[in-house]
Amino acid sequence: MDIAKQYDLGFNEIQDLYPQQDPWIPPEGMALIIPSQWILPETEMEGIVINVAELRLYYFMKRIKMVIAFPIGIGDRGSHTPLGTFRIKAKRIRPTWFIPASLQEKYGDKTMLPGPDNPLGDHWIGLGDSPYGIHGTDIPWSVGRLVTHGCIRLYPEDIRQLFDLVKPGTRVEILYEPVKLGFLSGRIYVEVHKDIYNRIEDLVEYGYRRLEEKKIIQRVDLEKFRRALDRRDGLPVDITLYNP
To answer: Is residue 218 situated within a structural domain?
Structure first.
């Protein structure tokens, strides 16, 4: 978790690469791959785009043709982060947490004032008229996990940066894309993540269907593609078919 935070990654991004390693005590001297390249989600490259399946948020700045990305924590399996398109309605510093009815007995109150134990952290970005938002956290190690009641949680330093960049009215799209395809310098890449919400009946079939939709299946090394689908480690892989 310390390594993930040091490189602005979510816990899942290191764990998925090394599922057999003890996440608490990795072997001393072990060399680690730090995943720092991503295929962009296939969508309108405008405003905020959140890919729930990879636990990552992208912010597109069209005017200067730049994108920045942050790891996130999302809703657990009983409280999925909602998909859809929203607009930022409100921004608050040191927000009060209006505790969901299902948690009021646990916390003994209906609200929690700003402070070090407030799970919203020091910044809140509200999504339209919904109860959901993008916010900080009092537990940084929860980023890269399924831990919230549907909201999107960022490291404190990341939410501060995003908070200063976005304005009310900014478009926010939340999607679910575990298999991403990308193209760079004539090469084809795939990035595969776990189906964390079990929304897809057969991820392998889903992946091959993506190739067919793109009409690129004849240009892909299907053995490499299948290995990427089996690993589901979130690392972009070159799957271009070699033609001598």
So the answer is: yes
Q: Which pLDDT tens digits describe the chain residue by residue (244 residues)?
A: 899 999 999 999 999 999 999 988 888 999 999 999 999 999 989 999 999 999 999 999 988 999 999 999 999 988 999 999 999 999 999 999 888 887 888 888 888 899 888 999 999 999 999 999 999 999 999 999 999 999 999 999 999 999 999 999 999 999 999 999 999 999 999 999 999 999 999 999 999 999 999 999 999 999 999 999 999 999 999 999 986 5
- In terms of domains, do 120 and 230 share one? no
- What pTM was estimated for this model as a whole? 0.94
* Pairing, β 237-238 against β 187-192: antiparallel
Q: Is 135 a catalytic residue?
A: yes
Same domain, 73 and 43: yes
Task: Give the β-pairing of 237-238 and 171-175.
Answer: unpaired
Judge whether 152 and 135 are in contact, CB under 8 Å: yes
Number of domains in the chain: 2
Kindly state whether residues 41 and 161 are assigned to the same domain.
yes
β-bridge partners, 57: 50, 70
Q: Is 123 labeled as catalytic in the residue annotation?
A: no
Please state, in angstroms and as integers, the Cα–Cα distance from residue 42 to each residue in 65, 81, 200, 217, following that order.
16, 19, 18, 18
Query: Which residue out of 80, 123, 149, 151 is catalytically annotated?
Result: 151
One domain, residues 81 and 197: no
Active-site residue, from 80, 123, 135, 149? 135
